[in-house]
Every structure is written in C-alpha cells, then in structure tokens.
Amino acid sequence: MLPVLNNADSLAYFWPEMILTAGAMGVFLFDLAVAKSPRRILWLTVASLGVLAAAALATSHVAGLSPTPIGLFNGLLVLDPWAVFFKYLSWAVTALAILIAGPSLEVASERMGEYCALLLAVAVGMSLMASSTDMLMMVIGVELVSMVSYALAGFKKHDRKSSEAALKYVVYGGVASGMMLFGMSYLYGLLGTTNLVGTAARMNAQAAMLAQAGVAASVAGAGRVAMVVAVVLVLSGVGYKIASVPWHMWCPDVYEGAPTPFTAFLSVGPKAAGFALAVRILYGAMSVSGGADLATAVADVPWPQVVGVIAGLTMTVGNFAALNQTNLKRMLAYSSIAHAGYILMGVAAASETGSQSVALYLVVYLFMNLGAFLVVGIVGRLSGSESIFEYRGLSARAPFAAVAFAVFLFSLTGLPPLAGFVGKFHLFKALVDRGGSWQITLAIVGLLNSAVSLYYYARIVKAMFLDKPHTEERIAVPASYNLLLGALVGLVLVFGVYFDGLRQLAGSSVVLFGHS
Amino acid sequence: MLPVPLPHTLALAAVLFCLGMVGVMVRRNALVVFMCVELMLNAANLTFLAFAQAHGDTTGHVSAFFVIAVAAAEASVGLAIVIAVFRSRGTVNLEELKTMKH
Amino acid sequence: MSPSPVGPYLPLAVTLLVSGLMAAALPVLAHFLGPRRASKVKSESFECGSVSEGSARQRFAVKFYVVALLFIVFDIETVFLYPWAVNFKALGWFGYAEVAAFAATLLVGLAYVWKKGALEWET
C-alpha cells in the first residue's frame, strides 16, 4: 500500500507552494507600499527573488523529509523525486524571467508588481502540474498556469500585437481546457475515480472482469471507444500546453505578441511542466508497473507509436515553418515547437531512460532557449525591431551578444561540444535503445530535422558575422544583461563537456509515485 | 421521482459539447466563442455529475465545483482581454485580428 | 443484458428528431400561415410597454464591464463555501482554518482592486 497522508499531515510537505502563494499575495501588497518609490522595480525584483529562494530552501527541506515517494492531501498530490526535480526547475525559470524583466523595459514600472506576483502564481501552478496524480489537481494546475499566462501575454498596454496574442491564447486555451475536462469526465466515469495512480493495472483488471462476465462484444467495444476518446481528449490538453502538433496553432502568435521576458518564460516553464505531466500520465500512470511498456493497457492502442508519430509531425512542422521566418521571435516560436517534438521522442521511448532524457533535455533547453530569447530581447529593446534585418553585422555592433547568440543557436541545433548536443544525444539514445523499427525511423526523422534546423539557425549566425550592418552605431548592452548572458553561455559550454552530474541528477529523478 | 437514466444525460452532454466545439470553429465573434467554450465546460460538468450519480460517489460533485470555478475564471480573464482588444482595435472579430500572419 | 446497445437510445433519438422537426417547422408554418400587416407601431421593438428610446446597439461604458468581471470572480467563489457550510460540524477547526485562508486570499485581492481604484465609479 502506498503511503498517503491526510490534509492536515500533508501541510508539512507543502511548504514551497504555501510560501509562494503567500509570497505572491505579499508582492501584490508590497507593490502598493512601494508605489511611490523610484527604485520600485529593484525592490520588487529583490522581494520576488527572496520568495523564490525561500521556496527553494523549503523544497530541499520537504524533499529530505521522506526518503520514499509519498502521497499528499488524500492522494491529490504526490511528493516524489520527479516532482521535486520539476519544482526546482520551475523556481529557476521563474527567477530568471523576473530577473530579465526589469532591464528589458517591456514591463512598465507601475506594472512590475503585478508581473512578479503573477509569475509567482504560475510557479505554483507549474509545481502542481508536475506533482499531481489526480485529474482534478491536474486541471487546477494547468488552469492556474494558463489563466495567468493569458493575462501576462496581453501585458503590454495599448499594444495591438500583445492584446491580440492574449485573445488568441485565451480562445485556444479555453477550447483545450474544455476538451481536457470533457475527456476527464469520461475517464472518471469509466474508472470510477479521478485518481490516475495505477490506472494501467485497474484497466487490465476491469478488462479481465468484463471478459469473464461475458459482456456482449458490442458493449465492450463501445466502452473501449469511449476510453480511447477520453484519453485522446485528456492528452490534447497536455499537447496544447507543450505546443505539439496539431495543438500548436496558438504558439507563434502568442510568442510574437507577448512581452519578450514572458515569451522566454513561456517557452520553457509551462512547457517543462507540461512534459512533467505527460510523462506522469503516459509513463507513470498508464504503463504497467515494472514493465517498460507504455499504456498499451488503454484499449490496446499502441500509444508509444501514437506519441512517436506526433513527435515526428511536431518537429517537422516546427522546423519547416521556421525556415522562412524573418521575425526572430516568431522563428524561435517555431523552433520551440520543433523542440517539443524532439522532447516527445523521449516520451515515446516510454522507458526509464526516456523519461531521464526528457528531464535532462529540459534543463539544457532552459539555458539555451532562455539565452536566445534574452538576446532577442536586448536587440529588440535597443533597436525597436525583432526583424532579422537588425541582426546583420551584429558582431560589430554588440560583439558579446552576437557570440552568445551563436552559441545558443548552435546548441539548439545540437552541435557538439555544446549542451544541446548532450541533451539531444540522450533523447536519441533512449529511442534507439528500445530498438524497434519505428523507433529507429523516428530517430532518423529527428536527425534529418536537426539538419534542416541548422539551415535557419545558421542563417542568423551568417547575418550576424558575415553581413554588413545597416548602421555602424554600437548597441550598448547593459552590464547586467552581459553578466546573465555570460552565465548562460558558461552553463551551455560547461554542460556540453561535464554532463555526468546532470545525467545522474536526471536519472535519480525518474522515481514516480505508484510506478515501480 | 425517477432518476434520469445515465445514457440520456450523457447524450445531452455530448450534444452540448459538440455544439460548443462547432460554435468555436464556426463563429467569429470573440464573445460568442467564449460562450461556446463555456458550453463545452458545462458539458464536462454534466458528465461528471451524471457519472457521480451512477457511481454513487462524491468525487464527481467536487470536480463539478472546480469546473464551475475554472469556467468563471476563464470568463473573467477572457472578458478582460476582450475589453483590452476592443480598446486597441475597435473590434472583437477574430477574423480581423491578423497583425501577425506571415 | 440488453439485446442491443442501441435500445436505450431509441426514445432519445425519437425525441431529438421530433423536437428538431418541430423547431424547424413552426417558424416555416408561421411564415406561410400567419397574416402580416406591418405598421409603424408594430415594427418597433417592444420594451415592456414603455416607449423605446434610442438604439439598442449603443455601447456601454467600460466601467460596467470591470464591475461585472469582479462580480463574476467574487460571486463564484461562494461555491466553495457551500460544501464547507454543509459539513461545518464535521470539518471542525481545521476546516474553519482552511476556509479562513481561502477568504484571506480573496480579501487580499479585494484590497488590491480597491487600492488600484478599480472600484471607483466616477473616474
């Protein structure tokens, strides 16, 4: 029997989220207190980072409380290494998004308090997404992240693109959550519970029982169809969060219209939480305990192949659409769709190493993608445009930013000896280790896609280093930005060579509650 | 009073869900699209409650409460954004929002 | 076991069909059978008997929307108070503390909205 605590006892394990919730409210009130201060942005940044640091300390405290995975709040949430890993990741992304907001000037000083407080709320949502095993809690996590994201996407007042992005986001998001909830309601009806722990075993038992009772084939068939439809609807909601094909339509517009610091956040934070959820559903709940196979229990549909096909489509659509983009923010949006496809390869592998490679890639992706958006933010802020035209001869106008951008782009392509290569290598390895013919095919599709992506990444690098700038005027990059860029470049370079620690960390995180 | 049989409720919920889905795809006014989304959420609600009755289990009722809250939050965030769009664009027609198409 | 899974759905299908036909048929029949004698007074929009004033398509001030938004949020939150109220005795002090925390969250929201001036009617 798995250990599950009641509401009162669970509170001792819930400190990080409680601190963040109280912190978000505190930042709202603090914002009112410092409304007149000229150093308002600085104060708010420091306060929010303080809250996140406290949450990180609390996370390490609660992670040490229980050596084995433990269920909280009567099984709504769990605390296991997988959840803890994504909690740390969420706090880190949130901290970086808050850190880059101040100097980016895209968030007005009188709205900085709202920006920070709302991001802290998203952090709670991401943590709930990563640690829920109950469908009810999954919905709350997803909705907390989504609702706040709608508001933050439309954060630039009187900006046509920004409000348009928010409206598109809220419409697509509403449809996705409607589909997910409808699927969940059927899943609840068929399973008799909203808790997904041990779904596979339960469904196998149910199938055996039905077969024994001699239920008419047509009735059993109808049940199976309902099951498949329900699972597809639930996974649509998850697919929407990670922006995989065919639920990727919102992504380019929202990424382009939203304020750049938030776009950077959106491309890594909610995506990582979405993958945590996907692995929890597909690998943790729906695969048979002890076995390595994913979810064939659900109505005998070959789910790994389904995920594999979606992965292949996602990376292909993302990469080919990115080829002729001239707006860098939009191009990075398509590139992030393609990367969702690569990471889905790890999910499709449906193995422990697959989940490990997903976790590893998300860490690496955090550094390189955030870094790339950081450069786009700087150039956008100082030149007022995100067009590739501005990047011509950037090496002469802002040498360090240009070099850093090149490093991030080559890392996104997956070239050695950068961190992106390590991440991609593990994804491919997890897939090839499974050894089936479709796994190998998917790996080849992934390789070809990486080659395609090199074209549009290299196009920017060529523009930066070989083309003549349209003006000789230098771009004065603030020291704080250079420091952050340097740190991110350093991480990408270091993890490209010394990745053993990272691999072990990711490996030790693949312990999911209820899946042994 | 006789309870409504499960298939009837489920069929009604499915019809509501499909109406919402079709509405989202066909209608172009943002406000009407939000109404259709609410229809989809309420279809989910009805299904939760129907199954809760069939199972004799309260989880479905609890879920329904949360779906109501989610729908309300969705509506208020959505309306706030519609106001913002209307202020900057003077229209809430989704067809006309094409600043970023390439 | 029921002989066929279609069985229980048959009455429902009939109902749907009949109501659909009725819905389609009534306006068509009314269009062809009803006498039509339009006059100025008749084609005016009907407002509870009082004389209608202005266009119905005029815009409302944004302040109405803001109040409506806040109303939705604060109103719906009461759905969480009902289950607690029903089980008030059984949940005891722990339940009370939980609901107090919930209400405190709303209170912070209200304070922020107030201080930001979203409740000012005359701006």
Task: Please characterize this protein's 3D structure.
The complex is a heterotrimer of chains A (516), B (102) and C (123). Helices cover 75% and strands 1% of the residues of chain A. Chain A is built from 20 helices and two strands. Chain A has helices at 7-10, 15-33, 40-65, 81-104, 112-131, 135-153, 160-191, 199-213, 217-241, 250-257, 260-285, 303-322, 328-349, 352-383, 394-397, 399-413, 419-434, 437-465, 479-497, 500-509, and strands at 70-72, 77-79. Chain B has a domain at 28-91: Helix Hairpins (Orthogonal Bundle). In chain B, 76% of the residues lie in helices and 0% in strands. Chain B is built from three helices and no strands. Chain B has helices spanning 6-26, 30-55, 59-89. In chain B, helix 1 (6-26) runs antiparallel to helix 2 (30-55) and helix 2 (30-55) packs antiparallel against helix 3. Chain C is an all-alpha fold and 123 residues long. Chain C has helices at 10-33, 62-76, 81-86, 88-116. The model of chain C is unreliable at 1-5 (pLDDT under 50).
Q: How widely separated are the two ends of chain C? A: 68 Å
Adjacency order of strands in the biggest sheet of chain A: 1-2
Please give the largest β-sheet of chain A: 2 strands, antiparallel
Helix fraction bin of chain A: over 70%
Short description:
With 102 residues, chain B is mainly α. In chain B, 76% of the residues lie in helices and 0% in strands. Chain B has a domain at 28-91: Helix Hairpins (Orthogonal Bundle), CATH 1.10.287.
Which terms summarize this structure?
heterotrimer; A: 516 residues; mainly alpha; two-stranded antiparallel sheet; 2 strands; globular; C: 123 residues; Methane Monooxygenase Hydroxylase, Chain G, domain 1; 4 helices; 60% helix
Map the helices and strands.
The complex is a heterotrimer of chains A (516), B (102) and C (123).
Chain A: H1 7-10, H2 15-33, H3 40-65, E1 70-72, E2 77-79, H4 81-104, H5 112-131, H6 135-153, H7 160-191, H8 199-213, H9 217-241, H10 250-257, H11 260-285, H12 303-322, H13 328-349, H14 352-383, H15 394-397, H16 399-413, H17 419-434, H18 437-465, H19 479-497, H20 500-509
Antiparallel strand pairs in A: 1-2
Helix pairs in contact in A: 2-3, 2-5, 3-4, 3-5, 4-5, 4-11, 4-14, 5-6, 5-11, 6-7, 6-11, 7-9, 7-10, 9-11, 10-11, 10-13, 11-13, 11-14, 12-13, 12-18, 13-14, 13-17, 13-18, 14-16, 14-17, 14-19, 14-20, 16-18, 16-19, 17-18, 17-19
Chain B: H1 6-26, H2 30-55, H3 59-89
Chain C: H1 10-33, H2 62-76, H3 81-86, H4 88-116
